[in-house]
């Protein structure tokens, strides 16, 4: 294989995460650029819009906060296109935001024309449960917006596949867990699409239980602010090795498990001592919502994760991660299964749980919890790890894919892989 | 005190076998008339070398004139004694170095010289075999080195893995490229006939 020196300069990766859009050329090195995966549709009659004299219909990138006017704008004009990893076919605003982000990303890396630039090899990534129309629409966006010739060839790969590539493991199970949902995806040189399992449960559900906990602890006003709730979840949430034992221990020794969170640059402080045992509910709910302790929360109105169909996939609501992994692996060839269990990769912010040292053995991290869930179901000899770079592993995988896949490997709608050439 | 001739080898009239202080001593005599015969001199010296391991001490007895022709240090180096003689005197010019193994008293004067000779011969064969083995080892080493060179040059003409290409070209890529097996897997996409598992 001759080294493609062109692509060692002009490979470009784009990762459409649920919250962030990560993008950049191979020259970025280890870290891509990051902006929010959102767009703002300004009121063209507003003073701010006229003051900035912009002609864009949708604002993306670092400029978005400059245009935000009131809380009313947040719901009406600020669009997060990929909150659940899937864009509705008819959601034109969301697609316009995606298009604007693609343009923004590429124009941020406009090279000097004298350097022999003939367009980037662009690799974008989508959720593994993205239906075919998302691939069609995204590739169409690149085709129709290539007037400046930034794109020589483009392709789309599933995010878990990109994670496996970025992590450097050719046979594995990748579990991606983001804000709205989670996906279990076996990989063996290719994504094994028929074996994927999707869960209708993610970081947003952990936020929901945290909100209920704050309400019960007397912080009802604070419980309504989504960003605050998310920060509290990250600060005080714990994953128990065993929920019953952890709750019993915390009820016995509340001081030991006391949590305190001070909202930065305010006087607002949240403290859980008597109710410190509830910290374990936050982590447990993510991994296994089936414990009877959660029934009281469902009874009080907290939404129970339901089975939903999104696009071509059914997202299971109440399946715990252990059962989800087993269901996925057992759809693969038997001789491949041991290899898959021996490399389970966790990716996504929803797996970022760091137990305090003093609570070792009672609180665990995500890999340990997954191992315990599998062990309880009779699956041992598993290896579960976090991806090396949870925030950027998808982008890393996009860059490697773009660098290595031969130019003549053309896009195929059966395989959903290959290069779609836009320039000669 | 005093040496005693142990046996007379009629065939080797130019040698003396002695026993001195319980040790076996062999003297090889270089007669005067042999001084001009280089072959004879060499024969004498070679004979001494072959006897070195068979006797406690070995001497070369040669005319005094030999001492002016040769550096006696040579004999000292090899532990061979040198006795120079003329009509008037006999001088032990170089004392021989006794072989430890032979410092023990003789078991019996009835030791079969044929056995001893056989032993010497076996030892000589062993040393030759040892020399041959060393030579073979050297040849094998050379052969292996040549084989590595050949296979290396062969590799250079075939398609190396992607990693070697990157290293050879000094391409400076991010750390997540290093030792990543996907580089080779993906570089063969659409080329090696493997397809994804059927959906």
Largest interface chains and counts: A-B, 39 and 28 residues
Q: How many separate structural domains of chain B?
A: 2
Give me the CATH fold name of the largest domain in chain B.
Rossmann fold
CATH class of the largest domain in chain B: Alpha Beta
Number of distinct helices of chain A: 15
N-C termini distance of chain B: 105 Å
CATH architectural type of one domain in chain A: 2-Layer Sandwich
Shape of chain B: elongated
Described by the principal axes of the CA atoms, the overall outline of chain A is: globular
Residue windows where pLDDT falls under 50 for at least 5 positions of chain B: 154-160
Question: Would you tell me the overall average pLDDT of chain A?
Answer: 89
The fraction of residues in strands of chain A falls at 15-25%
Roughly how much helix do the residues of chain B carry, as a percent range?
40-55%
Q: How is this structure best described in words?
A:
The complex is a heterodimer of chains A (424) and B (199). With 424 residues, chain A is an alpha/beta fold. Helices cover 33% and strands 19% of the residues of chain A. Among the domains of chain A are: 11-166 and 390-421, 2-Layer Sandwich (Nucleotidyltransferase, domain 5); 203-304, Nucleotidyltransferase, domain 5 (2-Layer Sandwich), CATH 3.30.420.570. In chain A, the strands form 5 sheets. In chain A, strands 8, 9, 10, 11, 15, 16, 17 and 19 form an 8-stranded mixed β-sheet that branches. Chain A has a 6-stranded mixed β-sheet with strand order 3-2-1-6-7-20, with helices on both faces. The longest helix of chain A is centred in the first third of the chain and has 16 residues, at 92-107. Chain A starts with 10 loop residues before the first strand and ends with a strand. The mean pLDDT of chain A is 89. Chain B folds into 2 domains: 4-111, Rossmann fold (3-Layer(aba) Sandwich); 125-166. In chain B, strands 1-2-3-4-5-6 form a 6-stranded mixed β-sheet.
